[in-house]
């Protein structure tokens, strides 16, 4: 470095040494500071809102913000400020989600959702537990699956594509050269 060892003993005794050197190093590495209200901070706020729409974990959002700032070569603001920005991003995402789906929550749907965690006497458990619990035995499986699907259809919530009940899973799938079972002559020997 070309500095006498005696000079290093005095390093840091001056109040502005650290901040002066930090500014010089940042300038050399082409990093920038981000003042409150600056364009960089507004971009970080938007980034956090966008990520909070995807993820709700404050720790993950904090880490993503830190990585974003490193990629943008922006010196991270204080931990407290960044944590506060993460909280604001999460609140903004919650408000935006409510705004986007609010029209879907009709009174009947809200009432159905309110009843989900309440124990249903006929089932002996909550509707939510019933919808996510596996069938208890093979004889009840197809009936329970049909009941679940009927319940979902009645609520106008269809299972995701590719989800089938036990009856559909148990039905053999026609292979190459085999006729589907619902066609005339299905199951009979072909060409005999």
From TrEMBL:
Renumbered residue ranges of the record's region Disordered: 135-192
Biased composition (Basic and acidic residues): 143-160
InterPro entries: DUF4158
Low complexity composition-biased segments: 164-180
Name of this chain's protein: DUF4158 domain-containing protein
Protein's organism: Nonomuraea phyllanthi
């Amino acid at each position: 470095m070309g500095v006498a060892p005696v000079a290093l003993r005095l390093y840091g005794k001056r109040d502005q040494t650290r901040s002066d050197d930090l500014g010089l190093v940042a300038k050399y590495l082409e990093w920038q500071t981000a003042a409150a209200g600056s364009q960089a901070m507004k971009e970080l706020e938007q980034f956090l809102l966008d990520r909070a729409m995807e993820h709700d974990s404050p720790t993950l959002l904090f880490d993503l913000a830190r990585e974003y700032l490193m990629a943008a070569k922006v010196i991270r603001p204080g931990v407290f400020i960044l944590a506060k920005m993460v909280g604001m991003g999460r609140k903004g995402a919650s408000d935006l989600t409510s705004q986007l789906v609010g029209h879907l929550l009709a009174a009947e749907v809200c009432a159905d959702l309110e009843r989900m965690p309440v124990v249903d006497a006929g089932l002996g458990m909550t509707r939510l537990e019933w919808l996510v619990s596996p069938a208890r035995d093979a004889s009840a499986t197809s009936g329970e699956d049909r009941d679940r699907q009927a319940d979902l259809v009645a609520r106008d919530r269809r299972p995701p594509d590719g989800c089938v009940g036990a009856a559909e899973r148990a039905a053999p799938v026609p292979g190459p050269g085999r006729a589907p079972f619902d066609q005339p002559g299905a199951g009979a020997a072909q060409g005999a």
